[in-house]
Write a structure and sequence with these properties.
Helix content is 40%, strand content 16%.
């Protein structure tokens, strides 16, 4: 499911950062939880690996229909992956707004080029005071 065929005998240190994140995801999924808690899972990855893993998370979500609570500081990532973005204030962390994401699934990376996507990202930036 996490596309690591051919690396079954590899040690974690022999895997790329993206592969290590896939291993973490598979460890989480093998217990068949109803809720996946993911706190900045792709923060240390390069942009392209991060995008590939965003597509993988979406694919797994479509197959498994798990509830995912995904914490990220990347607004575009939040909009791409979410049905709802819960925007938190900086210290103290409080819920500032819940933004519904209207884009149908499956989503493709090219969605990020659309004006509707950019508008939603900018709306969240405004809530955070970074517009």
């Amino acid at each position: 499911m996490v596309d690591l065929q051919g690396f079954e005998e590899s040690y974690p240190s022999q895997l790329s950062g993206g592969m290590q994140q896939r291993v973490s995801l598979s460890r989480m999924l093998m217990y068949e939880p109803g809720l996946l808690l993911m706190d900045e899972p792709f923060g240390a990855l390069d942009e392209f690996t991060r995008e590939r893993l965003n597509l993988e998370i979406q694919r797994i979500w479509i197959q498994q229909r798990k509830t995912v609570l995904f914490v990220t500081h990347n607004i575009a990532e939040a909009v791409f992956l979410s049905d709802h973005v819960l925007v938190m204030t900086p210290r103290p962390g409080r819920l500032a707004r819940v933004v519904r994401v209207p884009f149908p699934r499956p989503r493709e990376i090219r969605l990020m080029k659309s004006s509707e996507f950019a508008s939603l990202v900018f709306e969240i930036r405004e809530v955070l005071g970074f517009a």
